[in-house]
Specification:
- The chain is mainly alpha-helical.
- The chain is built from 14 helices and no strands.
- The protein has a single domain (2-355), classed as Glycosyltransferase, CATH 1.50.10.
- It is globular, with a radius of gyration of 19 Å.
- The termini are far apart.
Amino acid sequence: MKSSIHFAAICAASLMFIVPQTRAAQANNAEFREQFFNLCDLAADKVKDENSKGPFFVDSYAVRALCMAYDMTGNTNYLNACKIWSERMVDYQEQMSPRGAYYMHYNRKPGETNGDWYSADSSSIGMAVLATSVRCQGAEKKRYLDSAKSFADLVIKNYVKPSGGISDGLWSKSSDAWWCSSGIFGSFAFRLYAETGDEQYLKAGLGAVDWLNGLDLTADQPFPLSQQGPSMIMYVMESYSAGWPYITKDAARRRATLAKIHWCFDWIAEQQSKPLEERAWPPKKGWGLKFGGLPFHQYIFAHYLPADGKLAAAGDAEMRRLARIVFADQPPKLTQLPMFMLMSYAERLDPGAIYRSGR
């Protein structure tokens, strides 16, 4: 595929640069902006509602996008929604066992000492709490940042393996390093390093990347690619998208990571070439809902690959396809599909804002 040529070129030249927007891409901003803020308004109401249903890791992607919506508009309704949700996460966290764990809105509850608890889904929650802290000041900022550090320290002490991979916390199925927890905690660790400068978080993030680089994504393993499809690729790519500025500082690690990214984008391209109704994972249900998060990674790496705009253009085309599903209902239903799409919209409209640092 042509993407193979692009990756070979970047390996040879060690290039990192921003892809300028084409006129067509600029024209799409109005279309995507309207859809983004439509979903933001609905998501703000959802995350503020303490009786809202569903796993908190899904809400976390909307919260991170709402943080960026606040950056774009100064609309305090968006930031207040993030604060209300993050405060709820910290309140639950203070009652959880083990200490530092986030309540996921399922399985082990605050005050309980039995039942599964997952470092993967909690890492998504932690990234949203951390993103909220970036937009806060004083004691409020410290409270959210301390919460993120407490969670990170729990995982580093107990669930980071000598290989660099991360196990999924208190998971009855396996205590081995796993692709999902490694991908998402790796991303979280990079973000926490950006906020604190604490080298232990950078070490954890790079360790996760090295472990993922050596993992055969097609191998038989808990929740394999053949079952998870876009879900697996979305989460594995999180470490690469968040960690790229640090990954590139080591030539061997950069080459290994590019090979894995190349493989993932080829897989994404193959899926996106198929009509929605012909995909093995229908975007309207199950693991196929994660298709909404894949354009996020395409937009991220559009800034690092040669300037032909193909990754961003592919992301735009996929977002339009998925939008036809989401906006067929009025108002749209906040399934996982639009909640993950919010991250993709955010990166498309304000490149890099999702990874904004307070330092």
